[in-house]
Amino acid sequence: MTQASDIPQRRPLARIGSFLAERRGLLRDYFSAISGAGGRLVFSLAYFIALANTLSISEFGMFATASAAGVMLSRILAFGFISALYRTATIRPNLIGTFSAGFLLLGLLSLPLLAVASFGVYLLFFADTVPLSVFAAIVFA
User: Fold this and answer.
1) CA-to-CA distance for 102 and 109, rounded, in angstroms?
2) Do 64 and 116 share a domain, yes or no?
3) Distances in Å between the alpha carbon of 70 and those of 14, 94, 109?
């Protein structure tokens, strides 16, 4: 029978170190994947804290509303072709170039519709409170 004293004991930190060393590639890929999103998240947080401390409550509310309108209007870009590009990137990476070219072409073709829709949203909701140049800058960002 095996006694507990016969089992070689390893320090807990050594076990963790060997566990991480065995999965070094996986950890590198994970940190690479979250670093872009994490960096954007930190930047966005600092940006919105600065805006919240600079603008009045009503101005910040108007900015948030215009920003949300910009996010919704951005779905018009390339007539929604971005979802096909994302799907292709995960399923058939060798077609990314072809789909990217299609996205760029459809993006150019959709710009007039995007401009008309943006101007319509501006006239409908923001014309009385936000200058057109400010709205355009928020939507473009």
Assistant:
1) 10
2) yes
3) 51, 32, 19
Rg (alpha carbons) of the chain, rounded to whole number: 25
Q: What is the pLDDT of residue 6?
A: 63
Residues 2-25 pLDDT 10s: 666 666 666 767 778 788 788 888
Question: Whole-model pTM?
Answer: 0.64
Q: Is residue 45 part of a domain?
A: yes
Same domain, yes or no, for 70 and 107?
Answer: yes
Same domain, 35 and 77: no
Spatial separation of the C-alpha atoms in residues 54 and 76, rounded to whole Å: 31
Token couple for 127: 């014309």
Task: Report the number of distinct structural domains present in the chain.
Answer: 2
Q: How far is CA 24 from the centre of its chain?
A: 26
Low-confidence ranges of the chain (pLDDT < 50): none
